Amino acid sequence: MPLRFSLSSLIVLCSFTAILAHNNEDPTIKTMEDFSGYPIHESHSHLSSLSVDAQSLQKQIDELSSFSDTPAPSVTRVLYTEKDVLARRFIKNLMGLSGLSVREDAVGNIFGLWEGSNPELSAVATGSHIDAIPYSGKYDGVVGVLGAIEAINVLTRSGFKPKRSLEVIMFTSEEPTRFGISCLGSRLMAGSETLAEALKTTVDGQNISFLDASQSAGYTKDHNDISSVFLKKGSYSAFVELHIEQGPLLEEEGIPIGIVTAIAAPASIKVEFQGNGGHAGAVLMPNRNDAGLAAAELALAVERHVLESGSIDTVGTVGILELHPGAINSIPSKSHLEIDTRDIDEERRNIVIEKIHQSAISIARKRRVTLSEFKIVNQDPPALSEKSILDAMVASSKELNLTHKLMISRAYHDSLFMARISPMGMIFIPCYKGYSHKPEEYSSTQDISNGVKVLALTLAKLSLQ
Q1: CA 434, CA 333: separation in Å to the nearest integer?
Q2: What is the pTM of this model?
């Protein structure tokens, strides 16, 4: 069967062949020479010097996954535990081996700096997290930390010299597992005084305070240390995060690179109803004040209000629903719900939240129970990727002959809060069936290598601006 090429495919193929014929090297080398203004040739071919050391990178991912409180293939790595501390040591060692200057702040955000030729300019940053919720996988966040270190190695091997410094960041506690606070490290870096104050009295499920846990890991010495984590707006000229998609679109469409245009705005709500308990057989239906049924009705109302928005980008989840006393033959006297709702449109999301609130009030009245709590725990704005960073990521993908897709992130990441400090962008790579937060989470070495290459070239472009 004869091969068929579109005109655009032939143009790309011919251009690619012409570059190779002219330079006898990876087109990335020519690209870097073009925008850096000086040659980075050595006497031998650079086809290999710009390639990702995929085998070493995969080995590092596998080794990091061994710092876990649950057996393989699952990974459990919770903030300030022994395994978390060992994993941090592993990351700092890799940063040092890559020639980065390593430092940590008061809550354990880790920074590895490659100083540029103009260190007085604000640096370009990249990174992600390595903490893992119970029984999760080994790629979420980790690809963005180990991949960032490898991107630095790729640039170093190529002979590239940054103008702006490049900094790799490992953020503390992106997951809310231990203290119920997601993106703890990046929220603090973005200057959240509310969070800094709350952490002074925050405890985990074992009643261990944040400060005691932090000190046990070698960090926060006293209350005043927390605010030292704050960074001023403009501390970085750009921030780019490499991450697995955590969704199925890239894999399903056979596209190797996702370029994130926006991160959805998340909000979390806690709701409690108080009713009257009683014997499941003795209290007649007309006389009941069932807090459990109030919770069930509100859960359905969440779904209804989300669908009423008319947008596929509006989502809502009742992730926690607890009943007290929790006995099969006892009418629930108290119910507790925790609701997550997100949208890339902040106003539309806020309308959904208000509708949920009004439904909670109406349900409580109709079922003769008390709405004892309706608390908006967080209500973060969305983050839009900066055009200049989008342009750099798109150009890098094209120059590497990697197809890309513009997309939004419905999961939120440290980039959401880094956007409050600097212009932001994200690079997605495919993951198997979109699986994440489970042991089956997986990205191939080829997909990871593609992401690292796009990240490296993007960082180089941004460093020279």
Answers
A1: 39
A2: 0.83
